[in-house]
Amino acid sequence: MQEEQKWYTITIYSENTVGLLNRISGIFLKRHINIESFTASKSEIDNVTKFVIVVCTDESQIVKITKQIEKQIDVIRAFYHTDEETIFQESALFKIKSNLLFDERQIQNIIKESNAQIVTVSRDFFVLAKTGRRPEIDAMYDALKEYGISQFVRSGRIAVTKDSLMISKLLNQLQE
After folding, report:
1. Which of 70, 106, 158, 175 is spaced 20 to 30 A from 11 at the CA atom?
2. Closest C-alpha to 126, from 156, 147, 157, 155
3. How far apart are the C-alpha atoms of 149 and 99, rounded to whole Å?
4. How far is C-alpha 122 from the geometric centre of its chain's CA atoms?
5. pLDDT in tens, 8-19
6. How far apart are CA 98 and CA 123, in angstroms?
7. Please, how many CA atoms are within 13 Å of residue 121, restricted to the half-sphere of its CB?
8. pLDDT per position as a tens digit, 55-94
């Protein structure tokens, strides 16, 4: 019996070293699992980088992947969580012709209803920013598509867990 495919967020704490991203992506490549979203940033711990990776797979695969990631020399710790166990957002930017902002009343309604922000307005274009979950950004994209989107970009998922990860406590123990 095949396990249920679900969305998982993998959080990796590591040293920021050259080549680690290649080694991590290779783990997914070997298992034929597509990375849906990837972000890297400074973490809450000095000199530690936090990677957030989103994949759709089953629980047995995610357990194996997480263990394999933790075997990487530069990885301090890796965790996986379901969508129900995390708080997450994405961001998107939409570039649209300026005349539409003033000529199409519906665009102003879309901006207001989706709680988007106007980032900049110039003679030729304006840029909207939307932060939210993927379906909210997709809905805004669909609503604006008929008016013509000149450019669109979406960030990867940023996420924090609902439960404490105790990573700071773990690092303090390692340093002692």
Report:
1. 175
2. 147
3. 13
4. 29
5. 999 999 988 888
6. 6
7. 7
8. 999 999 999 999 999 999 899 999 999 999 999 999 999 9
